């Protein structure tokens, strides 16, 4: 139900929607929804992380580099790398940290 709820809220969201999808010792999975004009501001991860897009399309931006990710694309996020996420349309993706 969590993903259906996130999808329902997405069209009216004016800020990033973040839901804890799953948690286990030493790891967790976040489901993040970004409406078409909502940016996930620059931040970094201090533990290994991976993005998996499950709806829409996003752009991962780090410094002068940008990587376009579409549905079912995935990307390893380097530890300590500052990055932001911009949606190219209303999007939902998992961030898997462990």
Automatic annotation (TrEMBL):
Gene3D superfamilies associated with the record: Jelly Rolls (2.60.120.10)
Highest taxon of the lineage: Bacteria
Name recorded for this polypeptide: AraC-type arabinose-binding/dimerisation domain-containing protein
Organism: Salinimicrobium oceani
InterPro entries reported for this sequence: RmlC-like_jellyroll
């Amino acid at each position: 139900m969590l993903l259906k709820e996130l999808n329902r809220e997405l069209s009216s969201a004016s800020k990033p929607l973040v839901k804890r999808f799953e948690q286990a010792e030493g790891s967790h999975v976040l489901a993040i929804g970004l409406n078409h004009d909502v940016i996930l501001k620059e931040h970094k991860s201090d533990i290994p992380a991976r993005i998996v897009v499950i709806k829409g399309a996003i752009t991962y931006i780090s410094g002068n580099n940008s990587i376009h990710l579409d549905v079912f694309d995935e990307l390893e996020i380097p530890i300590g790398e500052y990055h932001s996420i911009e949606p190219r349309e209303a999007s939902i993706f998992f961030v898997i940290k462990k």
